[in-house]
User: Which sequence fits this backbone?
């Protein structure tokens, strides 16, 4: 390995996903020289994502779709999701800036639409690009804020929205003069007298790695999400190839941003932190191995909310699935099923031993099947087909169903009776599910779907880590144990504590990456401005 000469930048971005690219654009707009390094091709989890951006407060798309929202309403809703992960002041800023975030994304080439999904879904079809992507309409959230659809989806087919969103942001960054080096893994921070002044990284040229490397990396990335063991084996083989081709480089800058994602692919940290979430199928890329967070720790940074995870156990689409009820291993009701899938899973994981079943009667099951083609996207269809064929239990009465599930029959019957009684009496579901999604469970045969959080190939409960480095909410600087800023060091996105560090709803992670990435980019640009003006004086 050789060492090449030092280069100078204003900002070095470690990890070129949503957070890194947003910081790079913001800093480059202010005239900063930016170097972005990514151990992969760039894009990270962002490019694999559903491309949903949580935005509200009266965006043009909300207005065009007739959705009544304002920043204060958005704040009152999000306060319930955020639960103090960031201060109220920061959350207010996030909500106030939200319409501008959409305008900013459009200036970088992103595109959205006001086509509002008319039914409850965890991800809209290709006819819809605006939807209720969280708990806005569900009890108890709806009692504190007017329900407003805020899930803005980048226009693209199927699951390409994330890929397109990242591609537009990356293209914009490159147009603005950002230098981007893929296959460049940052191993170490350069720290001089307590100030972070640069990084040491290993890099390999695309030409040396060859076209097969790129193709296989893409395959490994996809497999990593849906068949983790196979994906990990292929990634390990590719990593050996990369190590052989890599050379070491040292580079300096006024600021280093850690934007290398989370740690769902770090087995040791998952053993330490995940607790009841240990069986989620890891979402993201091999880059989510916590190395970015480790870099922050090496400079004296501290972490928070490392035990917070999100697991996606989506009951819908089709929306009629939500009409069934969820019970735990004791036959007791879990929670209202119209909650967002990750919120539902959080209740199941934390209070019901991560075990649950969705119980439906024959009419609900038939209704769900009828809705399937019109309400599901292609990737959801495969999962529904699994549920309708081999992925369910069926029995002529509830006692027989309980027996198959190994759940106490008397408890299950009592739970269903209480639910039916609420609906038939006109009082509504005792657990508070919306009336339009509550129907009786009376007509056999009865069906059950296993909702438990476990790593299954056909019906996985995928998940992400939410905690990370503590940062100064004004500037994005990484904080040390005494709560002081570490000069020259910033963190953003899933490497940092942000708006979604305690609870995730669809779109909130990318929205937080944009918010925290741009904040760090602006801080570096401000330092630059003040240095230039003092140099001129
Ligand atoms: C299938 C899927 C669907 C999702 N859908 C949504 C959605 O619709 N909306 C939403 O808000 N969230 C969604 N999420 C979550 C969201 O995509 C991520 O939480 C978010 O994109 C993380 O962004 P980031 O910038 O922090 O990290 P990433 O986008 O993961 O980028 C980090 C980058 O850092 C690189 N890196 C890591 N370590 C190093 C190192 N040491 N040196 C150099 N480079 C390094 C990685 O290679 C990677 O490219 C989804 C996630 C997945 C996987």
Assistant:
């Amino acid at each position: 390995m050789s060492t090449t000469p030092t280069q100078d930048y204003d900002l070095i971005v470690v990890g070129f996903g949503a957070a890194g690219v947003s910081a790079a654009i913001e800093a480059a707009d202010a005239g900063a020289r930016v170097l972005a390094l990514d151990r992969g091709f760039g894009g990270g989890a962002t490019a694999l994502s559903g491309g949903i951006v949580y935005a509200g407060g009266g965006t043009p798309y909300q207005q065009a779709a007739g959705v009544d929202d304002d920043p204060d309403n958005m704040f009152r809703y999000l306060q319930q999701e955020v639960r103090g992960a960031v201060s109220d002041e920061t959350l207010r800023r996030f909500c106030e800036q939200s319409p501008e975030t959409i305008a900013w994304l459009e200036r970088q080439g992103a595109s959205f639409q006001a086509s509002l999904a008319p039914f409850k879904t965890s991800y809209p079809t290709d006819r819809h690009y605006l939807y209720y992507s969280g708990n806005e309409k569900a009890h108890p959230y709806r009692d504190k804020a007017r329900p407003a659809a805020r899930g803005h989806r980048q226009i693209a087919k199927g699951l390409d929205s994330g890929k397109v969103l990242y591609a537009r942001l990356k293209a914009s960054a490159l147009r603005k003069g950002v230098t981007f080096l893929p296959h460049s893994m940052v191993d170490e921070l350069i720290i001089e007298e307590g100030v972070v002044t640069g990084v040491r990284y290993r890099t390999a040229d695309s030409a040396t790695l060859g076209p097969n490397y790129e193709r296989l990396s893409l395959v490994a990335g996809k497999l990593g999400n849906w068949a983790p063991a196979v994906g990990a084996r292929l990634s390990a083989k590719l990593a050996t190839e990369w190590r052989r081709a890599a050379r070491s480089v040292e580079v300096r800058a006024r600021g280093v941003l850690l934007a290398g994602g989370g740690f769902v692919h770090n087995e040791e940290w998952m053993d330490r932190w995940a607790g009841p979430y240990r069986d989620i199928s890891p979402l993201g890329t091999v880059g989510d191995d916590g190395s970015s967070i480790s870099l922050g720790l090496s400079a004296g940074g501290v972490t928070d909310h490392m035990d917070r995870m999100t697991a996606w156990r989506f009951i819908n689409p089709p929306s009629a699935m939500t009409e069934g009820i969820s019970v735990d291993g004791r036959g007791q009701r879990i929670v209202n099923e119209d909650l967002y899938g990750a919120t539902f899973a959080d209740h199941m994981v934390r209070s019901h031993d991560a075990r649950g079943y969705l119980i439906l009667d024959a009419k609900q099951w038939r209704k769900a099947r009828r809705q399937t083609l019109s309400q599901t996207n292609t990737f959801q269809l495969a999962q529904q087909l699994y549920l309708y064929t081999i992925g369910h239990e069926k029995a002529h009465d509830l006692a027989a169903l309980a027996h198959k599930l190994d759940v106490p029959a008397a408890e299950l019957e009592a739970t269903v009776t209480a639910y039916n009684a609420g609906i038939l009496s006109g009082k509504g579901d005792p657990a508070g599910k919306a009336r339009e999604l509550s129907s009786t469970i009376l007509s056999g045969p009865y069906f059950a779907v296993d909702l438990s959080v476990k790593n299954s190939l056909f019906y996985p409960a995928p998940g992400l880590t939410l905690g990370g480095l503590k940062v100064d909410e004004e500037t994005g600087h990484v904080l040390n144990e005494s709560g002081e800023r570490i000069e020259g060091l910033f963190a953003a996105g899933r490497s940092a504590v942000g708006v979604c560090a305690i609870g995730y709803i669809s779109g909130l992670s990318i929205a937080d990456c944009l918010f925290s990435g741009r904040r760090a980019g602006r801080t570096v640009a401000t330092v630059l401005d003040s240095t230039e003006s003092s140099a001129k004086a």
Residues 1-5 have pLDDT under 50 and may be disordered.
